[in-house]
Amino acid sequence: MPMIITSISEWRKGKYLISLNDEPVFVLYRSEIRRFNLKEGEELDQVTYERIVNEVLLKRAKSRTLHILDKYDKTEKELRDKLKEGMYPAEVIDAAVDAAKRGKYLDDLRYAVQYIYEKSSRKSRRMIEADLLNKGVSKECIEKALMKNAEDNEENGSDPESALILRLIKKRCPEPDEIDQESEQKLYRYLTGKGFEFGRIKRIVSLYREGSI
Questions:
Q1: Whose CB among 49, 76, 113, 213 lies 3.0–4.6 Å from 145's, allowing a Cys bridge?
Q2: Looking at domain 3-102, does it have CATH number 1.25.40?
Q3: What residue spans define the domains of the chain?
Q4: Is the pTM for the entire model greater than 0.70?
């Protein structure tokens, strides 16, 4: 199927959106439009399209990728979403992502391990898992990261989730003897609502009431 340049419309900051067969495909500067002699209503041949991809878009996407990852670590999905916002074609995004992976700039497992480490003192395991899934990290990758985090905690003799549960209990009930049957049920509802496991909550509440922790 021939590629017809159906529109060249101003996009933002001196950039122009090129639509092929009525579908927005990529963005170029005016000088680049002149360089490749692109005109509305004319056909874009495959050779010229590949030149645009290889000589302009791919280099720009790789540069943009490094700029994005230099500021903040991202998951693969987050990076892809950012590049899609820049109107890069799918094959250009794939190539830029692959290059970032090869260069070790992009690694979902590394991201997940760091995210769990940073958030485990403020969020439950379930909430952290949900966050990572929303960021596009695979379940397999999350499980590996959680296992790595658990091994590190065991090695260091720490339990961030239990410490967080205890901190939240103390915040709502500063004194153990304040916890009666009603307030205990409220604690269970509050903490399970934050994604903590009921069994762990019950154990820590019991130890707190006994004055063991």
A1: 113
A2: no
A3: 3-102, 108-156, 160-210
A4: yes
